Every structure is written in C-alpha cells, then in structure tokens.
Amino acid sequence: MNQQVQAMYDTMRAKLEKVVPDVELRIKAEIAVEINALKVERNAVILGHNYMEPALFYSIPDFVGDSLDLSRKAAQTDKDVIVFCGVKFMAETAKILNPSKTVLLPSDKAGCSLAAAITADDVRALKALFPGVPVVTYVNTYADVKAESDICCTSSNAKAVVESLNTDKVIFLPDEYLGGNIARDLGWNIIFPYIKLTAESAENAENLNKNLRELSGLGGKTMIGWKGRCEVHEKFTVNDIRTVRAQFPEVAVLSHPECSPDVTAASDFSGSTNAMIKYVKESTALQYLVLTECAMGDNIAAANPEKDMLRLCMVRCPHMNTITMEDTLAALKFNRYEIDVPEEIRVRAARSVQRMIEIG
Ligand code: 13P
Ligand code: SF4
Predict the structure, then answer these.
(1) What is the mean pLDDT of residues 207-225?
(2) Considering only CA atoms, which residue is closest to atom 1 of ligand 2?
(3) pLDDT (average), residues 57-80
(4) How far is Cα 158 from Cα 164, in angstroms, rounded to an integer?
(5) How far apart are CA 273 and CA 271, in angstroms?
(6) pLDDT for 199 beyond 50
(7) Distance spanning both ends of the chain, measured CA to CA
(8) For the chain, what percent of residues have pLDDT higher than 90?
(9) Of all helices (H) and strands (E), which one includes residue 358?
(10) At a CB cut-off of 8 Å and minimum separation 6, what does 131 contact?
(11) Geometric angle at alpha carbon 62, from 56 and 64, rounded to 5°
C-alpha cells in the first residue's frame, strides 16, 4: 500500500471497521485515492446521497445528504464538473441549476419508480381538469414534469411548501404516500383522480367524474394526489413493525414519508433521510429500526457505534444500488453518463426548483 492509500484506508477503517470487512476496505481505499486524484484534475465535486453504500459514502463525496441538501449544494458549487452519486432525477436537478457545468451520473440505470410514475402529459391533463390549482411536484420526477409544475418539494420541506402556497387546493405529484402523509399531518383531504390518457377512456371519465363530485362536496382543504409509489418504501408494512417490536420491545421505529400513512403512523418518527440520521444521533434509544434503503442503516450504524441498528434488507433500491465506486471512477475517466436537459424544459423546471430552494 502506498502512503496515500494507507491514509485513505486508515480514515475509512476508523469509521467502518464494524460495518465493512477489512478486505473490502483495502480494495475500496485504492479506488477512492484514484477517484480523488481525478476529482482534483477535472475540478469536480462529488455529491453523495445518504443511500450510497458505506465505503463510497465515507470516502469520495465532498458533500453527503438528502435530496434537498444536495440540490442546495449543487446550486452553490463553483466546480466545472458535478458527479452525482445518486439517481437520475437528482443529477438532472443539478443540471437544471447548473446549465453550463458538466453533470455526470455514474450509472445509466439509476432511475426511480416514482419518477417513472408520471409524465408531462399527465400533469398537463391534471392542470386542464383543475384549472388554477397550483402544482407541487416532488423532486423525484424528471425535468419535463418539473417544467409543468409551479413548485418542487422534497420529503424534508413538503409541508412547508404546501403551506407556503396559502391555498385550499393543491395538485401534489406523484407520490401517493408522501401526499397522504402530508395531507394527514396538515389536516387536509386527499383524492386521486384517475386520468391515464392512454386507454379505458369511458371508465376513466366515470372515475374522474366521481372524484370531481367528491372534490366539490368536500369541505376544508383538498390535495389532488397521484398514485405513484416508491418501490422500496411501499413494501414496508405495519405487520413488519409489529413483528419487530414483538422481538425487540425497546426498538425505536423510524420511517421515510414515502412509506404508507399506516406505516408512518405506527412508527415513532417519520422524516427525510437527513431527519432520520439526526434523530438517531440525538435520541437516547439504544436500538433502532430504520425503514428505508438498507445502506443508510449501515451508514448510520457507522456513525453511531454505541447504538444498535436493525433494518429490513430484503427491500433494496435497485436504482441507488447501481452506483458503485468503480463506476464513479469510470464516470470521471470517460466523462459518463453526461446529463442533458433541453434548454426550453430546463428554464421552466429551474423556476420550480429555485422556488423550492428559496422556501427552505
Ligand atoms: P430524501 O430526500 O429523504 O433523501 O429521499 C430521497 C429518496 O429517494 C428516498 O427514497
Ligand atoms: Fe426512487 Fe424509492 Fe429508490 Fe428513492 S428509494 S430512488 S424513491 S425507487
């Protein structure tokens, strides 16, 4: 091992000795040193989402965090190249905010089931059905959907964004469960119009009318939702929580707001990935169940060695998991995979993202 690799290995080992076996750390330390040298050569910044695997998370990113944090970092950087260790919608957001910079996503397979759940045509159809109702779009969407929206949100600011609009109706897209959790917390109703444009038009129209009638008959504030779901968080159930609590009675259960409202209600705490990390750090419980992508449990365990971290690792994000250190090295070496957003879409999407960032 040369001196630089040894220093990197020592740093990684100090954090990860209880989480990652030594043999892996030695190999990853070598790759990390290569990545960091290329990072300097290319004047690049690496942003790493909280779901990155532990060896990556604790070695190469200049900044780690949740979606909101990382979009703020992307907005502030003065580097020429942004390498996004996350998924495509996150890298696209960085490009939307930095049109003149090169934005790289190390895998071309890092999608997201929520982003895939809605199209710009769907949003235009909803706006035609509910004219004048503001559209709040979760950042887990692609640029053309953001471009049709009034404002974006993440899981950490969604409530503040909805409240900032001072209105009694919003269209909230595309996460059924995040919408349901926010509606419940704010005391709003939520309805789900069915307007898939492609088929079954008679049935769609009937469903739609039913919903519209329901909407006009409701008092109070109403959220018009969409039935997109995160393929990871939708799998956690109240029964999972009950079973774990029966086995570990002292456990504190944390869930991401992309979990169903039933699951968040049965948890001790629900919040964005950053909020869950903070909760574990600051709370006095000794054992936690973190209902989110499993790698984050490893990262929290590494930062809190005195605490016991349980996680349900049979559910993994197939998209986040395509981002590896090997591919991050290749991204910097071969300038891949470069994110491109057509300027006409980017300008409109930027308004929604900037508006969100200004709210905080
Ligand atoms: P956060 O904004 O909480 O980091 O969530 C992003 C995400 O994709 C969760 O699945
Ligand atoms: Fe998308 Fe869910 Fe994966 Fe997050 S965990 S990137 S919401 S599929």
Answers:
(1) 72
(2) 112
(3) 95
(4) 10
(5) 7
(6) no
(7) 45
(8) 88
(9) helix 343-359
(10) none
(11) 65
Spatial CA neighbour of 123 closest among 201, 218, 224? 224
| pLDDT grade for 355, boundaries at 50, 70 and 90 | very high
Taking the C-alpha atoms of residue 150 and residue 131, their distance in angstroms, rounded to an integer, is 13
Ligand 2 close to Cβ of residue 87 (< 6 A): yes
Sorted by sequence, the CB contacts under 8 Å of residue 213 that are 6+ apart come out as none
112 CB less than 6 Å from ligand 2? yes
Tell me how crowded residue 284 is: count the other CB atoms within 10 A of its CB: 6
What the block records as the tokens of 314 is 């049979």
Contacts of 343 (CB under 8 A, 6+ apart): 99
Domains and CATH numbers, the chain: 3-111+320-334 (3.40.50.10800), 115-229 (3.40.50.10800), 233-309 (3.40.50.10800)
pTM, whole model, 2 decimals? 0.94
Ramachandran angles phi, psi of 46, nearest 5°: -110, 125
pLDDT of residue 212: 64
- In the numeric block, which tokens belong to residue 306? 């005195």
CA–CA separation, 37 and 129 (whole Å): 53
pLDDT at 194: 64
Confidence of residue 213 (pLDDT cuts 50, 70, 90): low
Starting at the edge strand found earlier in the chain, the sheet holding 102-104 runs 63-65, 44-49, 81-85, 102-104
Residue 344: phi and psi, rounded to 5, are -65, -40
Alpha carbons 329 and 109: distance in angstroms, whole number? 16
SS3 208: helix
CB 267 near ligand 1, within 6 Å? no
Cα–ligand 2 centroid distance for 232 (angstroms)? 6
> Does the C-beta of 121 come closer than 6 Å to ligand 2?
no
